[in-house]
Design brief:
Structural class: mainly alpha
Helix content: over 70%
Shape: globular
Largest sheet: none
Distance between the termini: 44 Å
Number of helices: 10
Number of domains: 2
Order of helices and strands: HHHHHHHHHH
Radius of gyration: 23 Å
Strand content: under 5%
């Protein structure tokens, strides 16, 4: 039932309209939500074609069998595209959060903030960071075919900062922005200091993430009162 409810929500323009209002129609997140909805509608139409084709097959109609085969291939492609669109939406929402976006009027952003706050996701990120630190310390003992990018060896000189980040992300209520920043640090092979080979920049970025983990912008006005 929960899966059906999520799929029905994808068909609605609610998320798309909320993102367009808050961020603009041309924002990548707004466009990704629109693309996801389009793929969902196309998948429904294709599913109807499959159902009609199956009905025709049961009636021994040769053309119906061909229709079912083509429709299944199209449905598979659309389901794959829908999954890619979903992953892209999550990525864009996390980017927005990491950059300080706190607009809860966009459901996709609010959903990601809750997901980033879950103990399971925070533990996964902490272990990933600690795994990179372990790899840096035992580099020569790792099979060369299994080694991560060589730049992560710089963590040898930032292990203290990395430990602080892992501790903070496991704390009771870290800032979603800090968690999103850690996610980007661990996954963005093009922009992250983790893969840049610059020790100074790496340590600075870890210190910045630690600061963000301790600061929740949504609670800042309350603390200032």
């Amino acid at each position: 039932m929960a899966i059906l409810e999520r799929f029905v929500s994808v068909l609605s323009r609610r998320d798309e309209d909320a993102a367009a209002t808050a961020l603009g129609h041309l924002h990548p997140l707004s466009r990704a939500l629109a693309l996801r909805r389009a793929h969902a509608h196309q998948l429904i139409v294709t599913s109807l074609a499959i159902a009609l084709g199956i009905a025709g097959t049961l009636s021994h109609t040769h053309e119906a069998g061909v229709l079912v085969g083509v429709a299944v291939l199209v449905a598979f492609a659309l389901a794959l595209a829908l999954g890619i669109a979903r992953a892209r939406i999550r990525e864009l929402a996390r980017e927005l959060i990491a950059n300080g976006g706190t607009d809860h009027a966009v459901p996709a952003v609010g959903n990601e903030r809750r997901r980033l706050g879950s103990p399971k996701e925070r533990e996964r990120l902490a272990r990933s960071l600690e795994g990179y630190v372990r790899d840096a310390t035992r580099w020569t003992r790792i099979d060369p075919r299994m080694r991560p990018p060589i730049e992560i060896r710089c963590l040898l000189f930032a292990s203290s900062e990395a430990s602080d980040v892992a501790r903070l992300v496991r704390s009771d209520a870290p800032s979603p922005r800090g968690v999103a920043a850690l996610w980007r640090f661990l996954t963005d092979g093009r922009r992250s200091a983790l893969f840049g080979g610059d020790i100074v920049r790496l340590r600075w970025e870890l210190l910045r993430i630690a600061t963000l983990l301790e600061t929740d912008d949504s609670r800042a006005p309350q603390r200032a009162v």
